[in-house]
Design brief:
Elements lengths: L2 H12 L8 E3 L1 H7 L2 E6 L9 H10 L3 H6 L1 E4 L3 H13 L3 E5 L5 H9 L3 E4 L4 H14 L3 E3 L5 H7 L1 H9 L5 E5 L4 H13 L4 E7 L4 H8 L24 H9 L2 E5 L1 H15 L5 H12 L8 E6 L6 H7 L1
Parallel strand pairs: 2-10, 3-4, 3-6, 4-5, 7-8, 7-10, 8-9
Antiparallel strand pairs: 1-2
Helix pairs in contact: 1-3, 1-8, 1-10, 3-5, 3-8, 5-6, 8-10, 9-10, 10-12, 13-14
Length: about 325
């Protein structure tokens, strides 16, 4: 599977529809780690999340008739919003299945973008399985949130921008849920800068991919509640991202809920930008590993900004 080739094709296809996001040098975090720390600000992407890249790449591969007939997806929020936004631009109907505990703010955003929202299951793996089955039974196109080569290729377009902005990248910290984002970024970066170190970052309360990689097979294990809802939940059986993570992710880091909250607060205070829980996970992981980063060029992917006021109030 040539992910780098998929990324290049995706970059060309989606460029008119996505925002080239800022790579911002952080004076505060660079001093903290004695390194050159940069934040890739996907919180400033259209819909407030990197998910638009993969969703748009997949939707552009569908025919106009398929989009008009209806597109089905499963999401905790950001991917669903990306699909709804994309179909608003391209024309089409979106049906989004979300787990029962999905953020009501993210649901409001999805509905506000014109999609039809249905609740199913308590875990994202169950929601995904139901959505895929619904699409098959009704003859509709299904857009996976991560388990799809074209979705992965779209997410990897972030890495194309990184390579064009930094001559040398030593370490990249990426939030890890189902693995679509990290697979795309790692697949492209490793083809350009083989020595780059890719660190997958998950909350301790939901580290299914990390545990699965450790066990050598995709595990069906429960997740505890976490403010990093964008990385929470199980992994679809047979997900292509599992082998890609095993091949290209160099190491993994987990952070607890207090560390996520503390680093979200610190980012707000020092960088003056809104981010969501899943974006604070790789920041917390980078801070945790700061003693190993001296003198390195470090990139932290800030994956999203979609946090409810209630959650933000609790954290602050």
């Amino acid at each position: 599977m040539d992910i780098a080739k998929e990324v290049i094709a995706a970059e060309i296809r989606i460029r008119p529809y996505i925002r080239k996001t800022i790579l911002e040098y952080s004076r505060y975090y660079s001093r903290l780690a004695e390194a050159n720390v940069h934040f890739k600000l996907e919180n400033l992407q259209h819909t407030g999340s990197f998910k638009l890249r993969g969703a748009m790449n997949k939707m552009l591969s569908l025919t106009r008739a398929q989009r008009k007939r209806g597109v089905v997806t499963a999401s905790t929020g950001n991917h669903g919003a990306a699909v709804a936004y994309g179909l608003g631009k391209l024309g089409g109907r979106a049906i989004v299945f979300v787990p029962q505990n999905a953020s009501h703010v993210k649901i409001q955003v999805i509905e506000g973008l014109g999609a039809e929202v249905h609740h199913f299951g308590d875990d994202t793996a169950d929601t995904e399985a139901h959505a895929r089955k619904f699409a098959e039974q009704n003859g509709l196109a299904y857009i996976p949130p991560y388990n799809d080569v074209q979705v992965i290729g779209g997410q990897g377009s972030i890495a194309v921008e990184l390579v064009n902005e930094l001559n040398r990248i030593d370490t990249v910290f990426v939030a890890l849920g189902g693995g679509g984002l990290i697979s795309g970024i790692a697949g492209y970066l490793k083809s350009n800068q083989p020595a780059v170190e890719i660190i997958g970052c998950s909350p301790q309360n939901s580290q299914v991919m990390i545990q699965s990689v450790g066990a050598g097979q995709i595990l069906d294990v429960p997740s505890l509640p976490t403010i990093s809802d964008g990385t929470a939940g199980g992994i679809e059986p047979g997900a292509v991202t599992f082998d890609l993570c095993r091949e290209w992710v160099d190491d993994y880091e987990t952070v607890n809920e207090d560390e996520i909250k503390e680093n979200l607060r610190q980012f707000l205070q020092t960088q003056h930008m809104l981010i969501e829980g899943s974006a604070a996970v790789p920041i917390a992981a980078m801070v945790k590993r700061r003693n190993d980063l001296a003198g390195k060029n470090v990139v932290v992917i800030i994956c999203g900004a979609n946090i409810s006021l209630e959650t933000l109030k609790t954290i602050l």
